[in-house]
Specification:
The chain is mainly beta. The chain has 2 domains: about 90 residues; about 140 residues, Neuraminidase, CATH 2.120.10.30. It contains 3 helices and 26 strands.
Length: about 325
């Protein structure tokens, strides 16, 4: 073999090795996977993100599910349950584990704790400036991207008639102009009250969701819950399996979903994202009222028609 040919072969092999290494470095941060039992769904730059079995954050990319967090240390997985997450950008995801808030860089495969204390936080959201808002039973914290915390709103800031001993904050949602919607659950009477806060933490509006729905629709549901704030609207689900879209600015209320199987069995929506402004379409996470154990992923069309098993999960997989 001539020296010239040997040199050519070495150059080609070198190029092949370089291409292989580059391909591995760009794809190894996500691993092909499947959805098992998702409990949260988010959308960012037209990609769907899922929290699966409270332990993994996954992405739906052109028909395939990828696990973005398979590389997380086993110690972290054993000691922590991811309650909620927020997509900061395509590389960074914030994860709430109860008492701690972590920033996960999925491309660099790095995880960093940015906040922790002794309280149990059950809900979080992210504003346009990158600040996080965490909710525990009796307070709302604001966490800057650098990890500095301030008490943004406390149970004691509620009107005195709302400060029932067994009432508790259950959710927080960032709205238009970084207004916050804080959900309060009460037991007597059993209801859900939503407080709209301005950027300084002052109450500017109060919404009794059950009464708002009862004005427009006949319902026997005893309680309601907010799923999300999108498109300048609160998305509300009640115990009867109905899904509503309520726009606080105009007071308009629209029922989106009420597919019942019979009088005692219905589908319950546990989370949703809007995926199309032009066609007013949504992706829903739904479970049935009998078991409530397994989650399906449906697509909801503008006319209210659901497309079942839009993405396969453990319960729908052959």
């Amino acid at each position: 073999m001539s020296k010239k040919l040997q040199v050519i072969i070495l150059i080609v092999l070198s190029l092949l090795i370089t291409v292989t290494i580059t391909a591995c470095s760009t794809t190894s941060w996500k691993v092909k996977s499947q959805l098992n039992n998702p409990t949260q769904i988010e959308v960012h730059e037209n990609y769907l993100y899922f929290l699966d079995t409270y332990s993994a954050i996954k992405i739906y990319d052109r028909g395939t599910i990828y696990d973005l967090t398979s590389w997380l240390p086993e110690g972290f997985k054993k000691e922590n349950i991811i309650m909620e997450f927020a997509v900061v950008n395509p590389s960074e995801i914030a994860a709430l584990t109860g008492s701690s808030l972590y920033m996960i860089d999925v491309r660099k495969k790095e995880i960093k704790k940015i906040f922790s204390d002794n309280n149990n936080y059950t809900s979080m959201d992210l504003d346009q400036k990158g600040n996080f808002y965490l909710v525990s039973a009796k307070q709302v914290l604001k966490i800057t991207p650098e990890g500095e915390k301030t008490l943004f709103f406390a149970f004691e800031n509620l009107p005195s008639d709302q400060q029932q001993e067994d009432a508790y904050f259950s959710g927080i949602f960032v709205g238009k102009n970084d207004h916050l919607f804080v959900e309060l659950h009460q037991r007597i009477p059993f209801s859900s009250i939503v407080f709209e806060l301005d950027g300084k933490g002052s109450i500017i509006n109060t919404y009794d969701l059950r009464k708002i729905i009862a004005k427009s629709f006949s319902t026997t549901s005893s309680t309601t819950r907010i799923l999300d704030y999108q498109d300048f609207s609160l998305y509300i689900v009640d115990t009867g399996g109905n899904l509503y879209k309520y726009r606080p600015g105009t007071g308009s209320l629209r029922k989106l979903f009420d597919i019942a199987l019979d009088n005692f069995h219905y589908w319950r929506v546990i989370d949703l994202v809007k995926i199309s402004d032009d066609f007013d379409e949504y992706i829903l996470l739904v479970t049935d009222s009998d078991t409530g154990n397994f989650v399906r992923v449906w697509k909801l069309l503008k006319d209210g028609t659901p497309i079942g098993n839009f993405i396969s999960t453990e319960v729908t997989r052959d």
